[in-house]
Amino acid sequence: MDRAADSGGSVPIAADATQARARAVVAAVTDPEIPVLTLDDLGVLRDVRLDAGTVVVTVTPTYTGCPATGVIAQDIRAALADAGWPDARVDIALTPPWSTDWMSDAGRRKLRDYGIAPPGPAADGGGTSGNGTSGGAASVHPVHLVRRGPTAATAATGQPECPRCSSPRVERLAEHGSTACKALYRCLTCREPFDYFKPY
């Protein structure tokens, strides 16, 4: 049964439930480069909506030209097809650009448990408006960023803590680690190397 119509038009309750179910499926898709993170953890999932019965997903890549973007879109379509939506569409939104500030607290904990130091706050704090999408897609919901404070160690040194022993005594070995979005560090206390997810 539909909701009563209002000035904005009515939305079928069944459509709301379908959209919520589709969003749950997409939110659980994992990042191909860091499989402990879901798209929801990473903060790249912008919108899931229904367009004339078709599920349309909007994602923002972590950076323009990220090689994982195509794989993420393919994985989203496969997950939705398995859940009963074989004709789902994935749109890419490039504005506002993704920021590490969009990562969830749960995602940051998962990174640390996985051995990757989570990012501190982005230098410019990111943006809060701008709903443009590429490919003629409809506008997506605005993203409201939460400014994250650094840990005590990061605030004092400008460097991450070791994800293994929490020591602030670390040194950077290379600007780029296993992927371009991570830097390679070594802990001077436990002597273990680790990746640091760079804030941007």
Quick take:
With 200 residues, this protein is α/β, with parallel strands linked by helices. The chain is built from five helices and seven strands; from the N terminus they run ααββαβαβαβββ.
What is the CATH homology-level superfamily of the domain at 13-144? Answer: Fe-S cluster assembly (FSCA)
CATH fold-level label of the domain at 13-144? GMP Synthetase, Chain A, domain 3
Identify the CATH class of the domain at 13-144.
Alpha Beta
Average pLDDT level = 82
Parts with pLDDT < 50 across at least 5 consecutive residues? 1-8, 125-156
- The gyration radius over C-alpha positions equals 19 Å
**Portion in strands:** 15-25%
The helix/strand order is HHEEHEHEHEEE
Distance between the termini: 45 Å
Give the helix/strand class.
Answer: alpha/beta
Number of H/I helices: 5
Per DSSP E runs of 2 or more residues, the count of β-strands stands at 7
> In the CATH hierarchy, what is the architecture of the domain at 13-144 at level 2?
2-Layer Sandwich
Assembly level = single chain
Strand order of the largest sheet: 4-7-6-5
